[in-house]
Amino acid sequence: MPRGRDDLTWGLIALGYEIRPHLGVSLGLSSFQPALDARYRYPRFPFFDFTDTNMNNYTQLFASVSGTL
User: Residue 28 forms beta bridges with which residues?
Assistant: First the structure.
């Protein structure tokens, strides 16, 4: 059955720490997924899908280091 549109949700949570005045690190979770579960019945939780036996989680863990001159 064709759909007229495709709704998506996006979630992001991150924690950063400044090691020195020009050096920092961060760690976080991000998720970009369809708004509804696999059966198009219920809204999907922003980070993990615990609603079905065929769970499809779109969550990514990321780490970064940043610096300035």
Answer: 14, 62
